[in-house]
Amino acid sequence: MVIKNDFSLQKLNTFGLNVTAKHFVELNSTDDVIEFFKSERQNNERTLILGGGSNLLFTKDFDGFVIKINIGGIHVVKEDEHHFWVKAGAGVIWHDLVESCIKANFGGIENLSLIPGTVGAAPIQNIGAYGVEIKDTFEALEASNLETGEKKYFKNQDCNFGYRDSIFKNELIDKYLITNVILRLTKQPILHTNYGKIQEVLHELAKEKITIRDISDAIIKIRQSKLPDPEKVGNAGSFFKNPIIPIELLNALKKSYPNIPSYEQPGNLVKLPAAWLIDQCHFKGMKHKGAAVHINQPLVLINHNNASGRDIVELSMKIQQKIKNEFGITLEPEVRII
């Protein structure tokens, strides 16, 4: 374990922003975690846990410790007649875990294919896509308290999962370092095909029996057709959450926008596609200083030309204000702004 000072984070955040950390350390094993917490160096310093850097927007240098988690490993820890329990290290690339489970025919996370980031970051965000969220298969996680180093086991009900939300984004933000995650996956996969364009893509296959591999391939095809590759264009995927509103507001909006898409939610609520709202306000391709709205997917803000984090924030605020004025809806960032 080596602690580095004034360390560039440009290659460790998918926006590609040129910011530095006062201190930076990589933890490659649980032994590294124990050693780190025995050290006094991190005391009284701000701390930021870094996974894949795919859900962060830095607006300035980080004056504290940035901890990069590289703990690996994927293995089955338990099995019964219907399920496998799979444990993965927090540093495992999320899509690598999805691929591993699909190859073994473990069902449950195939709809979450190609989501950027690491396994440790997934429950923090309660990642989701195409009608599935990680909470649907989440069993538990192991974590260490950032102040004491004490290990703690969080079960599903302990995490207060919500839409792109969890206890780790609220009461326990920056309080715990997640080291391992356990998922409960099924031996008899239930296919979720009713969201977005999945059925349209699957229809092109003209197959009698659809598998979880087919679902994954369809979702990868859809995502790659509309989302820019962060290796080529700096971005963090969806910048805003899809807003959830009362059905009464939807009915009012339908008077002006009869074709507004929506998805039913519990409690007389509906979810609206944020991309559709932004598109109605003609933001596709709009530029602001070094930032821009992606031309194919208005939900994605990009580092168009050596943007600063502040450029991207300013563009996001322009979008929020316009959506508020036009629809009476407040868009919330999905990306964490540092």
Count every helix, treating DSSP H or I runs of 4 or more residues as helices.
8
CATH structural fold name of the largest domain: Uridine Diphospho-n-acetylenolpyruvylglucosamine Reductase, domain 3
Please compute the radius of gyration using only Cα atoms.
20 Å
DSSP strand content: 25-35%
Number of domains: 3
Structural class: alpha+beta
Percent range of helical residues:
10-25%
- Contiguous low-pLDDT stretches (5 residues minimum) are none
> What is the name of the CATH architecture of the largest domain?
2-Layer Sandwich
CATH class descriptor name of the largest domain: Alpha Beta
Quantity of strands, as a count:
20
Distance between the termini: 25 Å
How would the global form be characterised? globular
Q: Indicate the mean pLDDT.
A: 92
Quaternary form: single chain
Reading side by side through the largest sheet, how are the strands ordered? 6-7-12-10-11
Largest β sheet strand count, sense and barrel closure: 5 strands, antiparallel
H/E element order: EEHEEEEEHHEEEEEHHEEHEEHEEEHE
Explained architecture:
The protein is of the alpha+beta class and 338 residues long. The chain folds into three domains: 3-69, 2-Layer Sandwich (Uridine Diphospho-n-acetylenolpyruvylglucosamine Reductase, domain 2), CATH 3.30.43.10; 74-186, 2-Layer Sandwich (Uridine Diphospho-n-acetylenolpyruvylglucosamine Reductase, domain 3), CATH 3.30.465.10; 234-337, Alpha-Beta Complex (Uridine Diphospho-n-acetylenolpyruvylglucosamine Reductase, domain 1), CATH 3.90.78. Helix content is 23%, strand content 28%. It contains eight helices and 20 strands. The protein has helices at 30-38, 94-103, 122-125, 198-205, 212-226, 247-253, 274-280, 309-327, and strands at residues 3-8, 20-27, 46-50, 56-57, 62-69, 74-79, 83-89, 128-129, 132-133, 138-145, 151-155, 176-186, 234-238, 244-246, 263-265, 269-271, 287-288, 291-293, 300-303, 336-337. The radius of gyration is 20 Å and the shape is globular. The two termini are 25 Å apart. The model has no long low-confidence stretch (mean pLDDT 92).
